[in-house]
User: Fold this.
Amino acid sequence: MGKRPPTPPPQRDLLAGLVVASHGRQLDVESTDGARRSCRLHGRRLQAVCGDEVLWAHATTGDPQGTVYEVLPRRTLLERLDATGRTEPVVANLTQLVAVVAPQPAPDWYVVDRYLAGAAWAGLQALVAFNKDELAATPEASAELGAYVAIGYRIVRCSTRGVPGVESLAHELAGTTSVLVGQSGTGKSSLLNALVPEARAVTQEISAATEEGRHTTTTAALHRLTSGGRLIDSPGVRDYAPALPAVRDVATGFREIHAIGAGCRFQDCRHETEPACAVREAVNGGTIRARRYESYRRLAELARHFATKYPERAPPRTPPGLRR
Ligand SMILES: Nc1nc2c(ncn2[C@@H]2O[C@H](COP(=O)(O)OP(=O)(O)OP(=O)(O)O)[C@@H](O)[C@H]2O)c(=O)[nH]1
Ligand SMILES: [Mg+2]
Ligand SMILES: [Zn+2]
Assistant:
């Protein structure tokens, strides 16, 4: 027999709170008066991430810690896939995702594509921030950025060192709840500090030996922007896989492929070996960038891999972000 959990306090005693950081079962919760305190999760089944709205109370008078009794329904949820294909929540109640890249460390554009696709499936606005813009972009980086603009993504060039500064990024963040995501060392925490000086987030130089970031930030943390928005800094990644829809829906994460795919002969075309595939024709003709198509193919392959391996975990037919 397991121990019975303590009875939750009556509803009227519960207070509204916002999870501003999560350390496993321990949460930092901001109450409506702006005060932040440490809270524990009540019961094994509750799970909360940064951005979650919760109901909490002091379990006993004098307890310095609060206890979270309820996690309120999430409006949006950014998730990731672990190596076994299970989804893990990353940040809740976002409105926008900002994929941060920089000339250094060398950009992994596949990671950017995966975040952009994940944002579409989660129902989030998305843009790309090219940080450290005072360092010259390589021709390759300029071409990739140009390709995102051509398919309708917003690109913001910014720098925490002088010109052009962070004003254009601040403009895109105003009034939103945004997360900064991307490879380690691109300057996510530096951007946060430039936008919210009192955040005082730890930053660290990228490694001279590997030219990669040092994975300085270890947990997502939410901060208030003076513009009224909220900004979440998150740990840098080596790779990222979003929660995947069914294989035939993967193209919905790639705007240009989805749009041109309407012209394929078969309505359920996977754009691989099917005859009269408008997408492959567009790739061959240069209208769809070959690297973006490769990015699509890799994600479709991952979706197929997990669907074959774990048929019982059938993903939603239509990703939540694309439901009307
Ligand atoms: N040249 C240049 N360096 C920058 C700029 N912004 C940040 N950096 C430097 O890039 C390095 C990494 O910055 P961080 O802010 O720690 O990077 P991060 O993306 O938060 O890294 P993780 O927390 O590991 O994901 C630090 O040495 C920063 O000073 C910039 O605009 N220009
Ligand atoms: Mg950081
Ligand atoms: Zn096709």
Remarks:
- The two ends are 45 Å apart (CA to CA).
